[in-house]
TrEMBL record, chain A:
Domain Roadblock/LAMTOR2: 17-106
A Pfam family hit: Robl_LC7
Name of protein: Roadblock/LAMTOR2 domain-containing protein
Organism in which the protein naturally occurs: Croceicoccus pelagius
InterPro entries the record matches: Roadblock/LAMTOR2_dom
From TrEMBL, chain B:
Signal peptide: none
GO molecular function: GTP binding; hydrolase activity
Domain of life: Bacteria
Keyword Hydrolase found: yes
The protein, known as: GTP-binding protein
């Protein structure tokens, strides 16, 4: 879980995140917004959204992830894998990038099934892990 | 049994998480993430949502202790938690680049809690940075919140006795505020 340079300041990691997000939006038309963020709430890269919104979503997603982790820890059910927020006109899924202090948060409209959305989020997080891991190797 | 919700606010690295750990009778709930902002505070982790602890005082009053993240990018958590709180312990680390400016910023953000119950200021890390002295804090508080009684202490967030003194001072203020409000209601 240690990056030498913080992910949000590392141009290579930012480029990887943009690459993954581009592919992400290609395979899922119901995707409205997505962002990679550091565990402590800094935006690494985003698709859609303005700069202010991106920073705010990164902070909120970081807090949500930490609260999810805290609940899972308190209930002794292991680490929180993902979080889903279902609303009237869409939902947000966020998932940690495995082995890294990074999270992917994605907003889908209501047309998408949760299963499909979860599947593409998992794929994107996994792709990000592979890119960052290969860079480190 | 009365219940009080007390917030612990202040800049990153002021000792909010540590203060709640010092005071809490239960295992604290922490939401920490790896800190990638070493320029602001050179520590491994940082609170990104809240800290939570509990303490019982006077045999019957339960006090819920909530710590908020110090960074402004988490100010949505400030808004959420401020609504429930009746008092504030504002911790300012004396070794911050400009601790008086930090005091100003947090009083501006959380000053309304004085009307809800009370505020106490705890100056931490004065062992590593002896200045500014407490009178500078008191002077600034008088300037930005004139006519308000806001005690200022030096405190070590790791020291349960010192933090308890600050907390009891705040609770006394909260109860006095409630009593005055009750008297005014009865008189009206």
């Amino acid at each position: 879980m240690t990056e030498q340079v913080s992910a949000h300041k590392d141009p290579v990691v930012i480029a990887f995140a943009n690459e993954v997000l581009d592919g992400f939006s290609d395979v899922c038309r119901s995707l409205r917004y997505a962002t990679f963020l550091t565990d402590d709430g800094f935006e690494v890269a985003s698709i859609a959204g303005d700069e202010k919104q991106n920073r705010r979503v990164a902070s909120m997603a970081s807090s949500m992830q930490a609260l999810g982790d805290a609940v899972a820890k308190d209930l002794r059910i292991g680490g929180a894998e993902y979080i889903i927020i279902a609303a009237e006109t869409g939902y947000v899924i966020q998932m940690r990038v495995p082995e890294h202090a990074m999270v992917l948060a994605a907003h889908f409209d209501a047309a998408e099934t949760v299963g499909k959305a979860l599947s593409v989020v998992r794929l994107a997080a996994s792709n990000m892990r592979t890119l960052v891991r290969d860079k480190a190797a | 049994m009365a219940e009080h919700v007390i917030l612990f606010a202040g800049p990153m690295g002021a000792g909010k998480t540590t203060a709640i750990e010092s005071l809490s009778e239960i295992e604290t709930i922490r939401t920490e993430a790896t800190n990638t902002d070493r320029e602001t505070a050179d520590k491994d982790t940082t609170t990104v949502a809240l800290d939570y602890g509990e303490i019982t005082v006077s045999d019957e009053d339960k006090v819920r202790l909530y710590g908020v993240p110090g960074q402004r990018r988490f100010n949505f958590m400030w808004t959420i938690l401020k609504e429930r709180a009746v008092g504030l312990i504002l911790l300012v680390n004396n070794d911050a680049a400009d601790p008086i400016e930090e005091l100003d910023a947090f009083l501006e953000e959380f000053g309304e809690l004085h009307e809800k119950g009370g505020i106490v200021v705890c100056v931490t890390r004065s062992d590593v940075a002896p200045t500014p002295y407490l009178d500078k804090y008191a002077e600034r508080i008088r300037e930005v919140m004139p006519g308000r009684m806001i005690p200022v202490f030096t405190a070590d967030a790791r020291n349960a006795d010192q933090m308890r003194t600050a907390l009891m001072s705040l609770i006394a203020n909260i109860e006095m505020t409630a009593m005055i409000a009750g008297n005014q209601e009865r008189a009206a």
